[in-house]
Write a structure and sequence with these properties.
The structure holds three protein chains of three kinds. Chain B has six helices and two strands; from the N terminus they run H-H-H-H-H-H-E-E. Chain B has helices at 5-25, 31-51, 55-79, 95-115, 128-136, 141-162; strands at 165-166, 169-170. The longest helix of chain B has 25 residues, at 55-79. The chains are: A mainly alpha, B mainly alpha, C mainly alpha.
Chain lengths: 100, 188, 302
C-alpha cells in the first residue's frame, strides 16, 4: 500500500516539476508548484498513516504544508499583479532582468 | 490496520484520477479547465487522505482548494491572452529539459518508494482528529502560531504589493491588455 | 444504514424539500394566484422547461455547461449526507461531518463560476465574478459560525452537535450564530436579497443563456441547496431532532420548514444590496461578528 501511494505521489510530483519548468505563464508555473505540494501532502500522510504509529506530528506537518500553499498562492498572485502593473509582463520571457 | 481490498481499490482509483487530472492541467488550452483540473487532482488526493483515515485533513484540503482554485482561475483569465482556449496554443519553453526533469524525478522518487524498506507501524484506529487538535494546541502550539503569524505577514505583504495605491502603480494601469509579442517586453 | 439507504433518503429529502421550497416561495409572491396555482407551479414550470426549445450560444464550453448544474445538485446532496434526521446513528453520521458540509458548500462557488463561464457570454460571466466576490467575502464567516457549534459539542460530527443541545439549543447559547448563518447561507445559495449573480440587472446573470433541461436542473439544484442549508441550520442551531412529544424526524421536518419559510420570505421582502456594498458588509460586519461568536462560545464552553 505504501509503495502504491508513493508511486502515485511521485507521478504527481513529476507532473508538477514538468509544469513548473516548462510553462511560460506565471500562473501556470504556480499550478506546477501547487501540484508538487499536493504530492508532498500525500507523501506526508502516507508516512504518518503507515510508518509512525499515528504520531500527530505528521498531521501537524500537513497543516504546515497547507499554510505554505496559502502563502505561496497569496505572495505569488501579489507578485504577478505588481509585476504586471510595472512591466506589463505576464510570462517569464518578459522578465529578462529583475532590476528596473 | 491492514488495508483491505476496498482500500487498495479506492487508493488506486483516486490515485489514477489525481495523476490524470494533474496531467490534464498542462494539456488543456482553457484556463478555467486547467484551474479546475488542478482542483480535481486536489480533491482526489483529499479523498485518498480520507481513505487513509485522515478524514479531517483530507476534507480541509478540499475545502481550501475550492476557494484557491477559483481565485487561480480568475487570475489566469485575467493574465492570459487566450483564456478560453478557443484557439489552440502552447506556451512552453525548455520543453525537452522539462520533460526529462519531470520523468527523471518521477523515476527516482518512485524507485525510492518501491525499493526502500519502511517500518510498518500503522496508525491506531481511534479518531486522529483529536490527536491533531491536542498536538496543535499543546506540544506544537509554537509551530501552529508561527504559521498563523506567517499568514498574517503574507496578508500584509500581499496587500502592500498589490494595493491600488501601491508602489507599483495605479490599479487602472493593469486594465490594459498585455502585448502579444514576447521580445518587446521589459520596457522600463 | 447502508450506503444505498442513505442515498435514497437524501434524494427523497432533497426532491420533496425542493418542491416544498418552490411552493413556499410561490406563496410569498402574492396571494392573487392562489394556493392551488402555487401547488402545481413546480410541475408546470418543470414541464415548460423540459418542452422548451433549447437555445445555445456561440462556442460554449459545452461539457462544463452540462457539468455545472449536476455538480451543484451533487454538492447539495453531499452536504446533506452528514445531517442526522432522527436519533443518532440513523443517517450517515461521520466523524468530520461538519467539515464535509463546509467543503461541499464552498465548492458551490466552483459550480456557479463554471455555470457563468461556460456559455461564453458576457452577462453570465459577470454573474460568475459577482458570485466569486460574494462567496469569498462571506465564506469565512459562514465556516466560522458553523464550526463554532462544534466547540461546546467537542466533536465535528453533526449527530454529536445535536446531542450537545439537549439542555439548550445553540440558537440561544450562540445568539450570533443563526442570524449570521442565515445571511451567509442565503448568499452562498445566491438566494433572496443576495441573488446578485442572477440579478435582473444582468438579464438573469449566470442563468441568462441557460434554457431547457439545463435551466430546469439548475433551478432544482438551487432549491435542493436551500434545503441542505436549512437542514444544517436546524441541526446545528435549532436542536435538530430534539423536541418533546413528537417523534424526532417530525421535529427535523418542522424546523427545516420553518427555516425554509424564513429564507423564502426574506428573499421576497428584503431589498437588494449592491455587490460592492455586500463585499464590504461581509468583510467589515459579518467577519468580526463571526469572530465575536467564536470568542464568546469558546469562553462559555470553558
Amino acid at each position: 500500500m505504501i509503495d502504491l501511494l508513493l508511486v502515485i505521489a511521485a507521478a504527481i510530483f513529476g507532473i508538477g516539476v514538468y509544469g513548473a519548468l516548462s510553462q511560460q505563464s506565471f500562473v501556470m508555473i504556480m499550478m506546477g508548484l501547487e501540484l508538487m505540494l499536493n504530492a508532498a501532502v500525500l507523501v506526508v500522510v502516507t508516512f504518518w498513516w503507515g510508518t509512525t504509529g499515528g504520531n500527530p506530528s505528521g498531521q501537524l506537518l500537513v497543516i504546515v504544508i497547507l499554510a505554505v500553499m496559502a502563502i505561496e498562492a497569496a505572495i505569488g498572485f501579489a507578485l504577478v499583479t505588481a509585476v504586471y502593473r510595472s512591466r506589463k509582463a505576464d510570462i517569464t520571457e518578459k522578465l529578462k532582468k529583475l532590476r528596473n | 490496520m491492514t488495508p483491505g481490498p476496498l482500500a487498495y481499490f479506492l487508493v488506486a482509483a483516486f490515485g489514477i484520477g489525481a495523476v490524470v487530472s494533474g496531467w490534464l492541467v498542462f494539456r488543456t488550452d482553457s484556463m478555467l479547465r486547467a484551474a479546475y483540473w488542478l482542483m480535481v487532482s486536489f480533491v482526489a488526493v483529499g479523498a485518498m487522505l480520507v481513505v487513509l483515515d485522515a478524514q479531517f485533513l483530507g476534507l480541509i484540503l478540499i475545502l481550501m482548494m475550492s476557494g484557491e482554485m477559483t481565485i487561480m482561475a480568475i487570475f489566469m483569465i485575467m493574465f492570459m491572452m487566450n483564456p478560453a482556449g478557443l484557439n489552440p496554443m502552447t506556451m512552453v519553453h525548455q520543453h525537452r529539459t522539462s520533460i526529462i526533469a519531470g520523468v527523471g524525478s518521477f523515476l527516482v522518487l518512485a524507485w525510492v518508494g518501491v525499493v526502500a524498506e519502511f517500518p510498518n507501524r500503522p496508525a491506531p484506529l481511534e479518531d486522529p482528529t483529536i490527536a491533531l487538535g491536542e498536538e496543535l494546541l499543546g506540544r506544537s502550539m509554537l509551530v501552529f502560531e508561527s504559521a498563523g503569524v506567517a499568514l498574517l505577514a503574507v496578508m500584509i505583504g500581499a496587500i502592500a504589493l498589490a494595493a491600488k495605491q501601491g508602489r507599483f502603480g495605479d490599479a487602472f494601469e493593469g486594465s490594459e491588455e498585455p502585448d502579444m509579442d514576447v521580445a518587446s517586453g521589459d520596457r522600463t | 444504514m447502508t450506503a444505498l439507504g442513505i442515498l435514497v433518503q437524501v434524494m427523497a429529502l432533497l426532491v420533496v424539500g425542493a418542491y416544498i421550497f418552490v411552493v413556499a416561495d410561490r406563496l410569498m409572491v402574492g396571494t392573487e394566484t392562489g394556493v392551488r396555482a402555487a401547488l402545481v407551479y413546480p410541475v408546470r414550470r418543470l414541464s415548460f422547461l423540459l418542452l422548451q426549445p433549447v437555445t445555445t450560444t456561440e462556442r460554449p464550453d459545452f461539457e462544463a455547461w452540462i457539468l455545472a448544474p449536476s455538480l451543484l445538485f451533487g454538492l447539495a446532496a453531499v452536504g446533506a449526507v452528514p445531517i442526522p434526521l432522527d436519533a443518532p446513528s440513523a443517517g450517515g453520521d461521520i466523524p468530520a461531518g461538519l467539515v464535509l458540509f463546509g467543503a461541499a458548500m464552498l465548492i458551490v462557488l466552483v459550480a456557479v463560476y463554471i455555470f457563468g463561464w461556460a456559455p461564453n457570454s458576457a452577462l453570465p460571466m459577470i454573474g460568475g465574478y459577482r458570485f466569486a466576490a460574494m462567496v469569498l467575502s462571506v465564506g469565512i464567516p459562514f465556516s466560522l459560525v458553523v464550526l463554532t457549534t462544534a466547540i461546546p459539542a467537542e466533536s465535528l460530527s453533526v449527530g454529536m452537535i445535536v446531542e450537545a443541545q439537549s439542555n439548550l439549543w445553540f440558537v440561544i447559547e450562540q445568539p450570533l450564530g443563526l442570524p449570521i448563518y442565515l445571511v451567509t447561507a442565503a448568499a452562498i445559495a445566491f438566494w433572496g436579497p443576495f441573488d446578485l449573480p442572477e440579478g435582473s440587472d444582468l438579464a438573469g446573470g449566470i442563468a441568462a443563456e441557460a434554457s431547457g433541461p439545463r435551466l430546469a436542473t439548475w433551478r432544482f439544484a438551487r432549491a435542493a441547496l436551500m434545503v441542505t442549508l436549512a437542514l444544517m441550520g436546524q441541526a446545528v442551531f435549532l436542536g435538530g431532532y430534539l423536541g418533546p412529544v413528537l417523534p424526532g424526524w417530525l421535529w427535523t421536518v418542522i424546523k427545516t420548514l420553518i427555516l425554509l419559510v424564513i429564507l423564502a420570505s426574506a428573499g421576497r421582502t428584503l431589498a437588494r444590496m449592491r455587490v460592492q456594498r455586500f463585499v464590504w458588509f461581509g468583510w467589515v460586519i459579518l467577519l468580526p461578528l463571526a469572530l465575536v461568536d467564536v470568542f464568546l462560545s469558546g469562553w462559555i464552553a470553558l
